[in-house]
Amino acid sequence: MTTESAASSRRSVPLGRKVTEDLLYIGYQALALEAGVRTLARSGELDPTLAGFRIDVRSTVIARAMRQLPGGRGDLCFPGPLSPGPSLAFGATPLEFLRHAARRGTSAAATRSGGLTWTEYGRGLFGWGGAGGVMTQVLAGAALAFRQRGEDRAALVFEKCSAVESGGWHEGINLAGTLVAPLIVVLVAGSMGCGTRATGVDKVARSYGIGLTEVGDEPHDDLFRKIRLARAGAVDGGGPMLIHLKARSGEDRWAGHNDFAAWAVREGGFSRGDRSAIARAAVAGVDHAVDRIGKEPGPDPDDALAPVFTECDSERPWTRREPPHPHMAAGAAVEVANAR
Amino acid sequence: MPAELPEHVARTRNGQPATVLEAISEALWEEMERDDRVFLMGEDIGAYGGAFKVTRGFLEHFGPSRVVDTPIAEGGFTGAAAGAAHMGLRPVVEMQFMDFISPAYDVLTNYIATSLYRGSGPLPLVVRGPVGGGNRGGPFHSQNVEMAFFHTPGLKIVYPSNPRDAKGLLKSAMRDDNPVIFEEHKGLYRAPFCREVLPPDDYVIPLGRARTALEGENITIVTYGLMVHRSLEAAAELARDGIRAEVIDLRTLLPLDEDAIAASVTKTGKLLIVHEDTRTGGIAGEIAIRMNERAFEWLDGPILRVTAIDSPVPFSGELEDYFLPSTQDVVTAARYLVEY
Question: How many DSSP H helices and E strands does chain B contain?
């Protein structure tokens, strides 16, 4: 097992302009989107429980450190409890996220399965699909497919720390370890339902013989490099990696992003003007989404009974449409059955 | 490719009769030869060749990436199979005994069955394994599991009764883009009365279509799996009294071939449903209400059923014989119904 400490020193290797620009843009997006969601929740446009909505900006850095390619050829990501941070890093737009959060818009999945995640393989996005730990199993299988085909791809899954208390999660991580699947599992500390607070994540990693990287308050460029390293290890035959995303020590949740933005000007080759332009573009996209979401159409009732089989029409039961046999057409019993 | 195929997958090529087990092995082998996306997962299916030796010789021929021995974690490897299927592979999961599909109930019903509907795309995946009593296996190695899944939209359930159907239906299941649960009765695996020379061509039997195992006009007996043979034995005895029973072998339980049942019932006016599964919540209840909806006016008597009793499968041989439906039970019920 390898363990990296949370406090690592900044390395001299530059991130590159494109990565730095992306991290800045996504960070500003996340910051604006968090505020936008809270506003919408307070106004009743979104579920009121989202009034305290938070985005952990570190999730955007972790996700951006994965390999992203168009056409479903890059890494996969299940954003889990940290959605939409990782989704933004995988190319999702704020409006797409709001459509799912509001159960509106043109996406069939938005209104049928709901939730704050959705599936779009073309961009490497996996949507939520069941009990805690199940997505670790599913992503382990996807990672196994990558390994079997010899592809330079990995699967990234964000799970609540409470996952380590679920048998399903252990089955998934054990399987990934046994099959040496390139799977990266981020355990988010302090998530709901975390009875034991995941104090023994290092023991879990040790017991499965898999690598562990701990993430705390380190600068974003360090975090980016750390995840890149973990990914490379997973893809190069090291098998699954655990990332323990610990709670921040400071009060300011956006300190990491603000520090990174300052670093980008100080050492990353960006001017203040560059940085402001990136921030303005990111915020404008969120503002558009927040303004637009109330005008998005609601779900189409015909879409509600989507086919459950690939080759089937979504036929309603006869009692809701018409009687099964002509001789029953005028029958009172049928009218009663149809009255809903 | 080795010079000689393993004996149990070469029956048809050698022009020899195949058992149900050999037919299943042939289907798996031929599909793996035909489509390199197909791979197998399960407990002890590789080096050991499977608890019933269905996959004996597969590991040597196809290698460990396509014949994957898994930990004892049915939920975990079924979930992983789903992830691999999302990524374009076509997994076939073996449950060592279908009784142990229960740990995978969550992922099968919450995740896999809902995938297409949720917008996560089709999930081509087969979960197959041995079911059924009569082998003195007791409560944990003898169950029929179909009705635990019958109520879940998005799953298909197949239950063959003979070698020809087993091979053709399994090939169809493996080529289907939907998740399929494939039940194989242990009592048929090596049954001497159930061997036949199979067609040498690459045939498939479409899912969702029943077959008429025996034509008759006095009573319809709807059944599947091992009970097809019990029902045919009963029909032979009834024939000695001049009663001509029509036996419908469902082959696929979900989707249910309602048209085939209705066509027979409108001919005979009497319906007897026979299944090895327990009585309450058995498929007989669903068939009865559908015929009540579709063919009530053609019925000349009550719809009856012959089933196992509502009990866990007993371990004692005497008790198990009492528990399971017998040929004589079918004869008695059919006579009563014909004379009604």
Answer: 13, 14
